[in-house]
């Protein structure tokens, strides 16, 4: 496994601390609706109309009983029923329009939030991704935004209607009879305490569900990506057992969360029954004493049912609300991450790269307390090829990652054509470079699109020319659809060597002034390596190149070879000079070639 920065428990702990303030998260989420002020004003008008229709219906029923049914007035009763029908039709039409408008607002908001989330991920420094499972980040972009989509699409509409409907009912009850209204309100404190009791516990439970589903997604992503290694090392059953544990943790977290919300609805139902009993008892007493009509009592009973209907409805969307807030916490944790530092205000645009690279007393550590590079100094002149060799963990990859500013030095200076790289814009600096890694990443799409990745305007002829230079043209033409052959993420369907050749062609097409090869020929077979070696020699002659190689045979003609040991330069020189020194390079060279011969003999003997 290649060396890299260690995970940061402190960073993730800080993220968890930010996630704990659920009230701040809710306030921030509500603030997302600010750009839709005019549309929300229209929604507010619709909500008020809906609330009025809800409040009017029981009042009309009470009037029908007292003024029409009790007085045997069929014509008046028919008119009252038509009025009631009109109220319900208006309520239905208003509710439909309300759902449509809120749904449109919600989807626009989510699309913008998802775009901001993706943009933030693109702007974060590489160190952020070194410390977090990709699967967990995928879960935040997909699963967590989906929970917001469900809540905004359904829950928000219901919450708006329920809140204003509740206010309308309270006002209507007070208008009809103040004493009876106050009696029915006796259960409100108990209702608020019950809601608070369940809410405080549900917050913790639903935060746990979002965390555990992130673990499950991360595990799935990792095991699918490592399926070959899993089978090669006979780890399938062990991986199943580990996934079973994480899946069970997610199941248990969801069961606990659902258990809390399922208990909330019966509790509210019980309070609704108590309130109904109070209204019947006290209202009946008032009717018997001629202080209240039967129609008003019937209207009150309908109002009490409507009063608790929004609260009961809350129990059905409570799961969505808590899950959405937990998902929002995880999304905002990414949005609040510090992006890659911006270019300095007076950053220069590197218009034309000559290719001189200078490391001057460079010190760097992924963790400031543990430097990986210590006082590294060397110079690469324009057109030169410098090779970096050393044992695993010596700091070779870290050196090449500092040149395009994937990370910035802790101290010291890296200069390109005499300019401190920190004084240049990243875009112009990276535009003059190309990297070919040991394990190149190919994107879903066609081979043509992958080669064009660094130069989107390239013609078909330019792509084919680059592929020929990289010795990839022949095998591409042999594929069923040639350059239009689709490949999966990571280059599924192609051999490791073929993927590497496509990466070479991509670098050739970009035509960089500075080329970085990070063990780029390590996964190419001997025959393929021989095919591209001549092309590479021609390519490297006109470019400054920094090459990392474990195969010492591939860098014997480099202008300079630098041997790294524990983050320090141990020795440097040409291939012959270093062999004559009989130092670390000579030891590595002798060990590499001695290892190969006995292995062949042992294989023949076996």
List keywords for this structure.
12 strands; 606 residues; 10% strand; disordered N terminus; 6-stranded mixed β-sheet; disordered C terminus; ABC transporter transmembrane region fold; Rossmann fold; 2 domains
Description:
Strands 6-9-10-3-11-12 form a 6-stranded mixed β-sheet, with helices on both faces. It has a 4-stranded antiparallel β-sheet with strand order 2-1-4-5, with helices on one face. It has a two-stranded antiparallel sheet with strand order 7-8. It contains 20 helices and 12 strands. It folds into 2 domains: 22-335, ABC transporter type 1, transmembrane domain (ABC transporter transmembrane region fold, Up-down Bundle), CATH 1.20.1560.10; 348-431 and 545-606, P-loop containing nucleotide triphosphate hydrolases (Rossmann fold), CATH 3.40.50.300. With 606 residues, it is an alpha/beta fold. It has helices at 9-19, 22-31, 37-69, 74-123, 126-130, 134-176, 178-184, 188-225, 227-232, 236-288, 294-335, 396-402, 426-431, 447-451, 460-469, 473-477, 496-510, 526-541, 575-581, 584-605; strands spanning 357-364, 373-380, 385-389, 411-416, 419-420, 433-437, 445-446, 486-487, 514-518, 544-548, 560-565, 568-573. Mean pLDDT is 79; it is low at 1-19 and 595-606.
């Amino acid at each position: 496994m290649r060396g890299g920065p260690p995970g940061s428990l402190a960073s993730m702990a800080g993220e968890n601390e930010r996630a704990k303030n659920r009230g701040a998260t809710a306030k921030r989420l509500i603030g997302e609706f600010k750009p839709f002020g005019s549309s929300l004003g229209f929604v507010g008008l619709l909500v008020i109309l809906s609330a009025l229709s809800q409040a009017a219906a029981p009042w009309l029923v009470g009037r029908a009983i007292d003024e029409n049914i009790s007085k045997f007035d069929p014509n008046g009763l028919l008119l009252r029923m038509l009025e009631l029908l009109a109220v319900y039709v208006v309520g239905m039409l208003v509710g439909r329009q309300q759902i449509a408008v809120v749904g449109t607002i919600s989807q626009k908001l989510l699309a913008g939030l998802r775009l901001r989330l993706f943009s933030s991920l693109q702007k974060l420094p590489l160190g952020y991704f070194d410390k977090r499972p990709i699967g967990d980040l995928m879960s935040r972009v997909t699963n967590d935004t989906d929970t917001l989509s469900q809540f905004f699409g359904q829950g928000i509409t219901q919450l708006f209607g329920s809140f204003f409907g509740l206010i309308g009912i309270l006002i209507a009850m007070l208008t009809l009879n103040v004493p009876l209204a106050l009696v029915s309100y006796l259960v409100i404190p108990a209702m608020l305490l019950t809601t608070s009791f369940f809410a405080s516990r549900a917050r913790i439970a639903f935060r746990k569900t979002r965390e555990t589903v992130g673990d499950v997604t991360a595990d799935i992503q990792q095991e699918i990506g490592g399926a070959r290694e899993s089978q090669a090392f006979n780890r399938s059953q062990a991986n199943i057992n580990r996934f079973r544990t994480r899946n069970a943790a997610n199941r248990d977290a969801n069961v606990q969360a659902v258990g809390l919300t399922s208990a909330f609805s019966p509790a509210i139902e019980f309070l609704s029954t108590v309130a109904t009993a109070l209204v019947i008892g006290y209202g009946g007493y008032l009717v018997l004493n001629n202080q209240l009509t039967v129609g008003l009592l019937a209207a009150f009973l309908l109002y009490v049912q409507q009063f608790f209907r929004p609260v009961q409805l809350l129990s059905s969307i409570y799961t969505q609300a808590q899950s959405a807030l937990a998902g929002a916490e995880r999304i905002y944790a990414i949005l609040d991450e510090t992006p890659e530092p911006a270019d300095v205000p007076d950053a220069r645009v590197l218009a034309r790269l000559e290719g001189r690279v200078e490391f001057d007393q460079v010190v760097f550590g992924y963790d400031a307390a543990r430097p990986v590079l210590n006082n590294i100094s060397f110079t690469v002149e324009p057109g030169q090829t410098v090779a970096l060799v050393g044992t695993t963990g010596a700091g070779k990859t870290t050196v090449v990652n500092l040149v395009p500013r994937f990370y910035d030095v802790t101290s010291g200076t890296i200069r390109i054509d005499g300019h401190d790289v920190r004084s240049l814009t990243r875009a112009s600096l990276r535009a003059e470079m190309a990297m070919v890694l040991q394990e190149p990443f190919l994107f879903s799409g066609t081979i043509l699109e992958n080669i064009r990745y660094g130069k989107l305007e390239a013609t078909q002829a330019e792509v084919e020319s680059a592929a020929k230079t990289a010795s990839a043209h022949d095998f591409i033409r042999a594929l069923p659809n040639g350059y239009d052959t689709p490949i999966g993420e990571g280059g599924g369907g192609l051999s490791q060597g073929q993927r590497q050749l496509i990466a070479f062609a991509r670098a050739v097409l970009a035509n960089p002034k500075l080329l970085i090869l990070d063990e780029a020929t390590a996964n190419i077979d001997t025959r393929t390596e021989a095919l591209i070696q001549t092309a590479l020699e021609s390519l490297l002659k006109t470019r400054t190149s920094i090459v990392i190689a474990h195969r010492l045979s591939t860098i014997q003609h480099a202008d300079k070879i630098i041997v790294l040991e524990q983050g320090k330069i141990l020795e440097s020189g040409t291939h012959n000079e270093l062999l004559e020194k009989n130092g670390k390079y000579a030891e590595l060279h002798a060990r590499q070639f001695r290892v190969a011969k006995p292995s062949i003999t042992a294989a023949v003997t076996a």
